[in-house]
């Protein structure tokens, strides 16, 4: 199965609500990254959290990392219609020399 | 500042034909990557390159060939296209393997 697995696969919320997406992985990592993909476009980097960090913020984004549970969460606060996209976690696996992407969470923000 | 570009953006070809997808970056990034994105599989790494003339296989390299004679270009060739290679292909680059990757806009390939 995938190194990084997002949960849920799809999420639909009302504008203004908070959205939380989770990512689980299997092996030790150097860092974990979150990307956003708008329909028909390439991926855009959102935030990178290193294995020795527990929480990071960037604007309305908050990422947590729990290396003991091998999991991460992405919280988007005060969601907007423009946040509608797919969100992917990617793990930089120790010794693997590559990023491994999960299958993504499709987020829909309803006006 | 063009960043990272891919061409063509859309391509229709027939089974058995050779197809080359181009990727060009203007940042002089050392690392470049090719991914394919399919429903149910997310992004899967095809090949990557750490520098000019250095390439290595990713998760799904069969049926693909890459080269990197210049730092800024990383073409991906399907030597004999098959229907299973119908996909969206993304190129990406970064300065160091563990850093943020910057993605191109993608190439949608349909093999008939």
What does it look like?
The complex is a heterodimer of chains A (111) and B (112). Chain A is mostly beta strands and 111 residues long. Chain A is built from no helices and eleven strands. Helices cover 0% and strands 59% of the residues of chain A. Chain B is mainly beta. In chain B, strands 2, 4, 5, 6, 9, 10 and 11 form a seven-stranded mixed sheet that branches. A four-stranded antiparallel sheet of chain B has the order 1-3-8-7, with no helix packed on it.
Task: Give structural attributes.
heterodimer; A: 6-stranded mixed β-sheet; 5-stranded antiparallel β-sheet; B: 112 residues; mainly beta; 7-stranded mixed β-sheet; 52% strand
How would you summarize what this structure contains?
Chain A has strands spanning 5-7, 10-14, 19-24, 29-37, 43-50, 55-58, 61-66, 71-76, 85-93, 99-101, 105-110. Chain A has 111 residues and is mainly β.
What series of H and E elements makes up the topology of chain A? EEEEEEEEEEE
Strand content of chain B: over 45%
Rg of chain B, please?
13 Å
Number of strands of chain B: 11
> Could you spell the SSE succession of chain B in H and E letters?
EEEEEEEEEEE
N-to-C span of chain A: 35 Å
* Rg of chain A (CA only): 13 Å
